[in-house]
Amino acid sequence: MGPYSQTVAFSHYNNLSAQLPVDPATGRLVAGGVKEQAERCFKNIQEIIKSIGHEMSDVVRITIFLQDISDMHAVNAVYSAFFPDYVPTLTTVAVAALPMGALLQVEALLSNGEGTIPNAPQAGDLVKIASDSRNAPTSHLSTQSVAFSHYNNISAQLPIDPESGKLVAGGAREQAVQCLKNIRAILENIAVPFDDIVKVNIFLKNLSDIESVNEAYRAFFPDSAIARAVAYVPARTVVEATLPMDALVQIEAVVSHGDGTPPQAVEDRHGIVINAHNTDNAPRCPLSTQTVAFSHYNHLSAQLPLHPETDEMVAGGVKEQAAQCLNNIKAIVESIGHAMGDVVKVNVFLKNIADMDAVDEVYATFFPGGVPARRVVGVGALPRGAMIQIDAVVANAEGTPPKA
Hints:
Blueprint (H helix, E strand, L loop, with lengths): L6 E4 L2 E4 L5 E2 L4 E2 L4 H18 L7 E8 L5 H11 L6 E6 L9 E8 L17 E3 L13 E4 L2 E7 L14 H18 L7 E8 L5 H11 L4 H6 L4 E6 L8 E8 L18 E3 L13 E4 L2 E4 L17 H18 L7 E8 L5 H11 L6 E6 L9 E8 L9
Helix pairs in contact: 1-2, 3-4, 6-7
Pfam family, one: Ribonuc_L-PSP
Protein name: Endoribonuclease L-PSP
Family: Belongs to the RutC family.
């Protein structure tokens, strides 16, 4: 159904392409409403997972993109049927448009206990650790944090006061502060420092609120003296979306987990270094690092179609903008000694979903084999008025070394 793989496994994770409610026999959207479409999305995920010898309980994160946020409750009922006991981390947002006019699209990240790297120590049968803190909002639909191998995935946090269960008072700045406080509480519960965050995804109801959110963000990053000394900030993506509870802000995070989850060989566990890197061959941003490597993955910040020398939007239409986004990603990937063939997951955000065919023409020149898993969504607005924004996850076979 497109220039991508259904799932790309590397090391201890499988990255699945976002699944549309498409009947694999016909290649068309299934008949019915959002309930029927949700069932088809999850069945597609289930079939992909079975095809690689895994189970739904190996899922560590689910992301649901809706056309209409009011459909969330109907979709949650379907979701619960596929996760009757264990629940993964969860993010739910509504976007402006989805491919094929679908009502929803569902994406999964899957643990891969056996690993994929040949001739290297693989723990095998790693334990998935799910945890909740009373100091952050809880939900029967999601686990706050699910750790597997050397990463923790955090459920998207709404600006909810955990004591009252209600949105905090104030505007986007106050809501961003509460989201980040909730993430901090979750990390404190599992004894992980705040500066171990490697990637942050910020969902805003109104992109125009970004400066207010950035004001709050700067108060949390960098967090420690060590991080301040090197001006460390995570990789970051900012997206406009409609959010549950009519919130103005929702934030999710991916966190490094140096100790790993057992069983981990002692020599593979302790003090793995976070490698943050920027290159002058791609646009720089003081609030994000272009790529943050930890263990066997690099997480890249979302790239806008900005020329790195001028920091201005490139001339032309969506094809030219898509090419610039991918050229920026290529420059970042090559600056850390990797190649585009190491990309395992691509996330494409479009101002106009109808531009997808034009973008695919450009995309195919960067990924001629169509190998990475992929997600495409249409959004109401992008930073700097861009037509497209792209981020990526890159395999890091060499890993990041333990501290000397």
